Amino acid sequence: MSTHPRAGQVALNEDLVLIPNLITAYYSLHPDPKDPGQQVSFGTSGHRGSALNMSFNEDHIAAISQAICDHRDAAGISGPLFMGSDTHALSAPAWATALEVFAANAVRVRVDAEFNTGKGHTPTPAVSVAILVHNRDLPADSAGRADGVVITPSHNPPKDGGFKYNPPNGGPAGSDITGDIQARANAYLLAGLVGVRRVPLRAAMSAGTTTLYDFRANYVAELDKVIDLEAIRGARIRIGADPLGGASVDYWPAIAERYRLDITVVHPFVDPTWAFMTLDWDGQIRMDCSSPFAMASLIENRASYDIATGNDADSDRHGIVTPDGLMNPNHYLAVSIDYLFKHRAQWPTAAGVGKTVVSSSMITRVAGSLKRPLLEVPVGFKWFVPGLLDGSLGFGGEESAGSSFLRLDGSVWSTDKDGIIAALLASEMLATTGVSPSAHYRELTEHFGDPVYERIDAPATREQKAVLGALSASAITATELAGEAITSVLTQAPGNGAPIGGLKVTTEHGWFAARPSGTEDVYKIYAESFIDAQHLKEIQVQAQALVDSTIN
Questions:
Q1: Residue 521 has what pLDDT?
Q2: 363: Cβ–Cβ under 8 A, 6 or more apart, which residues?
Q3: Cβ atoms 110, 207 nearer than 8 A
Q4: In what order do the strands lie in the sheet with 488-492?
Q5: Any idea what the Cα angle at residue 198 is, between residues 194 and 201, rounded to 5°?
């Protein structure tokens, strides 16, 4: 992947999306329901697209919202639906469309208490926590269970929109649910939206089924039950929190005020063009808090704080900046696991560690040293939901800087990714140990080795990606990788037997995994070496050659 010449530099006018054109496209362009690129498609984090290419328009949201109503009826869910949205320009019109459909279907929707003040942005974890708090004392089959919707494309560029559904377990919906919603929504698109119930926005907002809910106050009030905020306050940790123009923009000041923390909110405003952002590696504006290019301004000013953190647009991801710089997400996951399992005395003694198959094997080694069970699953946070819900997992994390963990008392907190608690945990670590997370990681490497990890892309057609996604382990006949004997070839995750949607090949000191991209004509190669960078390069080169020979 070549780096754009202006990566890490502040965006120019030519980089900005024209918001009026984007909103006009949302309402005026209509997708072709027979074009796969314009249909509803739920990936690992809901349906995403842009109004400009007719993949995220009013028709899509109306169809998805009606499909969710149908799903709720079929599943016997009649409790409240908590609805949040982030700061992307397409989130507000999608919010309005969804509310019109939900109101027409008499769904009891809980909208943010400040939705009409311009401050009603709701982080993904706040929706998850709201669902779980409501459902805490209800039987698993109660009709009064709550569920939720979050309108967000996460860290995607300003032109994009996203829409995801969280069932009563509070986490991302599984493929059985998203497949049902996707099929129903595309049927509505094909039928020209016949069968989609809808009322005007004014009627939806004044409907008796639409009520206000203070997501921010309720979320912030619960934070001291998951993070040792007293320790942070007592140690006087200076925190720089950058919402990156996202939904946590009003949460950080509320956290600072309630818990009397020294927090400076960096970029304390919302701009749907994200003109203040530094460009990502490819020249795109992308609110990726794990990218050194997108986080360049915070990294440059890191000396002003003891710990600096970033969140993406819906605050489900975290970026951790110490005096050493921006931490690699895999490094911070490993450090978080090591710290939490040593400092959460009330957690279940059998609670395990959840990681994806493409996360660093440093996590595997740390979990082993802690004598904690390891659950290795395919990509997608949905796989951690059952374990976080019943306490059999203390921590679940993805290499893409997303994680969640249990409350201090060992009960469930959020079953969706929570970038806010992950960010606060870095300050707790420093406050209680006197050691920064990056220094803590260096200590881990002294015990377990110092791996080199990288993800690269390789070109592939749609047909080749389909072959890769359906491979069986027997398709790989090679016996060596980068000079070492291959010890395993996996097409199913060892933690739950679910398909990886690609393959993973391991040796004693390295591994690679290959998965097709859901949005681009490439496949992704994740690779790691516990030897050195040259060994990693050998793994990558041989991995691409092996995969190419298999899918061609």
A1: 83
A2: 330, 333, 334, 337, 353, 355, 374, 397
A3: no
A4: 452-459, 522-529, 510-516, 499-506, 488-492
A5: 150
86, 127 Cβ separation under 8 angstroms:
no
Enumerate residues 6+ apart whose C-beta is below 8 A from 539: 481, 482, 510, 511, 512, 527, 528, 529
Which SS3 state, helix, strand or coil, does residue 265 take?
Answer: strand
Burial zone of 137 (CB within 10 Å; 0-12 exposed, 13-18 middle, 19+ buried) = exposed
Please give the structure tokens belonging to residue 403. Answer: 């994680």
State which amino acid sits at residue 281: W
Domains and CATH numbers, the chain: 18-218 (3.40.120.10), 452-551 (3.30.310.50)
What backbone torsions phi and psi does residue 336 show, to the nearest 5 degrees?
A: -60, -45
pLDDT at site 44: 73
- Between CA 371 and CA 447 the distance in angstroms is 15
Mean pLDDT by 10 residues, the chain (552 residues): 91 97 98 96 89 98 98 98 98 97 98 84 98 95 96 96 98 95 98 98 97 97 98 98 97 98 96 97 95 97 97 98 97 98 97 98 98 96 97 97 98 98 98 98 97 94 93 91 96 95 96 87 94 97 94 89
What does the angle CA 215 – CA 221 – CA 224 come to, to the nearest 5 degrees? 135
Q: What is the pLDDT of residue 519?
A: 67
Instruction: Verify whether residue 369 is a known catalytic residue.
Output: no
Asked if residues 330 and 444 have their Cβ atoms less than 8 Å apart, the reply is: no
Tokens of 45: 């984090």
The token duo for 506 is: 């391991």
Q: Which of 55, 154, 315, 427 is catalytic?
A: 154
Instruction: Supply φ then ψ for residue 176, to 5 degrees.
Output: -65, -40
